[in-house]
Specification:
Number of strands: 10
Order of helices and strands: EEEHHEHEHEEEHHHHEHEH
CATH superfamily of the largest domain: ATPase, nucleotide binding domain
Number of helices: 10
Shape: globular
Helix content: 40-55%
CATH class of the largest domain: Alpha Beta
CATH architecture of the largest domain: 2-Layer Sandwich
Structural class: alpha/beta
Strand content: 15-25%
Number of domains: 2
Strand order of the largest sheet: 3-2-1-4-5
CATH topology of the largest domain: Nucleotidyltransferase, domain 5
Radius of gyration: 20 Å
């Protein structure tokens, strides 16, 4: 017998996207709404936490109401409320969690707290339409670059991650040096298509270290700065570069980042003994990264799943990972709090 599907309202406010979606326990997407803040942060070449939190407060109710309208549901027809409560910006997280707690309390519905990074990997499950676990999960975004041994949809073990800048953060900072718009990832990718990826030999931290699953992009970012300014403390924005010089710098930088991501993903697969790789996060939309991951996994006979570009950036559909918690009866208390950083920041063996 078929049953009436369970309908979950999912909320995402970890950084600078205010998002809500309605999904069912059959993993059907009934609605998805995302309000972007890119224009608010563009002038600062990065996300300003206070501005992000205030924008979430202004947008959360209209976004929630639109998600329900698109799903053709009333508040009382929601069966549970899920919210990303870690990791992220404290002020942003608090807006989403407060909204979720209020809805759960008023409606008398279960509350489910979810990990934003795990949800990025679950976007691959949503896109594939089949179970993708167990797998190695690579989350590569503006704030995080981490590799997990995903033993199931609810059991993620950290294999390693960045020790300083995330890949997306490095893209944003290098884009700023080159006078490109925010966010930097799409702008660098577009310009890099005109450049020579071998014009500059930038450093690739830990690339050949087979004993460590880790990333470091801070030195790469500094190397780009010195390639622009030369020695000394000259203002990077005061240096006049031709479009071709910018394109070569963008292409060489992008090549270095992709080399590191692909190499460590391959090492993680070997270390965990997995034959499937799932990739999510904003940088996963990068065409060169997708191409190189395809090449690497084809050569190694690895099953590859990369979230579609529209589910790489922050969204609430990936919050469907809450369905796994709902099925297990793993609900959260109303005392649930936000956690800004990784719940576990050291590798688990």
């Amino acid at each position: 017998m078929s049953h009436t599907p369970v309908r979950l309202l999912t909320i995402e406010t970890t950084c600078d996207e205010t998002a809500a979606a309605v999904v069912t326990d059959r993993l059907e997407v009934l609605s998805s709404v995302v309000a972007s803040q890119e224009k608010l942060h563009e002038a600062y070449q990065g996300v300003v936490p206070e501005i992000a939190a205030r924008a979430h407060m202004e947008r959360i109710l209209p976004v929630l109401e639109e998600a329900l309208r698109q799903a053709d549901l009333t508040w009382s027809e929601i069966d549970a409320v899920a919210v990303a409560h870690t990791p992220g910006l404290i002020g942003s997280l608090l807006v989403g969690l407060t909204a979720a707690k209020t809805i759960a309390l008023v409606l008398g519905k279960p509350l489910i707290g979810i990990n934003h990074l795990h949800a990025h990997i679950y976007a691959c499950r949503m896109a594939a339409g089949i179970d993708v676990f167990p797998c190695v999960g690579l989350v590569v975004s503006g704030g995080h670059t981490h590799l997990y041994d995903c033993r199931s949809a609810t059991d993620f073990r950290l294999l390693g991650g960045t020790i300083d800048d995330a890949a997306g953060e490095a893209f944003d900072k290098v884009a700023s040096m080159l006078g490109l718009p925010f966010p930097g990832g799409p702008a660098i990718s577009k310009l890099a298509a005109e450049g020579d990826p071998n014009a500059y030999r930038f450093p690739r931290a830990f690339l050949r270290d087979r004993d460590r699953i880790a990333f470091s992009f801070s030195g790469l970012k500094t190397a780009v700065r010195y390639a622009i300014t030369g020695p000394g403390n000259k203002d990077v924005h005061a240096v006049a570069l031709t479009r071709q010089e910018k394109a070569d710098l963008a292409a060489s930088f992008q090549e270095a980042v992709v080399d590191c991501l692909v190499a460590k993903a391959a090492l993680a697969l070997e270390t965990a003994g997995r034959k499937r790789l799932c990739v999510g996060g904003g940088v996963a939309a990068n065409p060169l990264l997708r191409k190189r991951l395809n090449e690497m996994t084809e050569e190694a006979s690895i099953d590859l799943h990369i979230a579609p570009p529209h589910w790489c950036t922050d969204n609430a559909v990936m919050g469907a990972i809450a369905v796994e918690h709902y099925r297990a009866g793993a609900f959260s208390p109303l005392s649930l709090d936000v956690v800004s950083g990784l719940v576990r920041s050291t590798p688990e063996r």
